């Protein structure tokens, strides 16, 4: 009897010891994984999502503005797979200030950052169309500077400033987009191109098909440079342009703002056309309000010394465009590995 009790007591002690050991084992905390551990080093790094614009430089500043998103939006699989993003460019409005786009495109070419699709607003549409034809920045430079001073409006001795009719550009556009018998078509351009237009004051259109010359006749006219047309450029249509670029497969949208700071028009023209001056001030305000998720990056080119109607000073914005785009291309190359 006493032997059986001792045996039972011994079994009870053994069971308790085993259970106690299990309890201690299950409660034992896991060792934290340090960044220096080999296991931590073998984990694949997930690339950061594309930067989202949360603010822009002041009108007098220049460079690329973008900050990491907070909170982080859904990211496309292409970024997770470390594929290069497809860049979509929006070349903003600005009349003669739009020559700054040449410098931006030149810097993209130097940095070997491919452009998947391009859209343009007002005179930015002309620069974008030149680029879309062959995808070469030098071609844009050559064609844009073939424009003669007699092709743009000016003030005569006996009359005030008078905008050109869009028909006055017919010869220049025919030469710039010479190709087939009907001229170069956007459908056959090397890079997808599109531009927004307003027809008969209230009908919005986003154009990406047909002859380039005809698209320019619809997307470029805007005061004070070009008037006398039933079509007018939709100079503030950034959101619609971004939507179209994404429909073409672009997933990294870059807006190039060339309006800069200071007065938009020369003082004499601003006095003569006060309404036009106010209009351009509001367009600049609209461009500065662009935020994520409409675009991912904004390049602000300092063109404060250049006026929309200043034909003679159009070379300076080109160099300003190069300086501003250098900041952007360095950031894109660092983040995405272009």
Provide a count of the helices.
12
Supply Rg: 30 Å
Ends apart, CA distance between termini: 86 Å
Low-confidence stretches: 1-59, 67-75, 155-159
Q: What's the main sheet like?
A: 8 strands, mixed
Class of secondary structure makeup: alpha/beta
* Percentage of residues in DSSP E strands: 5-15%
**What would you call the shape?**
globular
Q: Which sequence of SSEs, written as H and E, runs from N to C?
A: HHEHEHEHHEEEHEEHEEHEHHEH
Q: How many β-strand runs? A: 12
Mean pLDDT: 78
SSE blueprint:
Blueprint: H1 2-27, H2 38-42, E1 63-65, H3 77-80, E2 87-91, H4 100-110, E3 115-120, H5 123-134, H6 137-144, E4 154-155, E5 161-162, E6 164-165, H7 170-176, E7 193-199, E8 203-207, H8 212-219, E9 226-227, E10 231-233, H9 238-247, E11 252-257, H10 267-272, H11 274-288, E12 297-300, H12 315-336
Parallel strand pairs: 2-3, 2-11, 3-7, 6-9, 11-12
Antiparallel strand pairs: 1-12, 4-5, 7-8, 7-10
Helix pairs in contact: 4-6, 4-12, 5-6
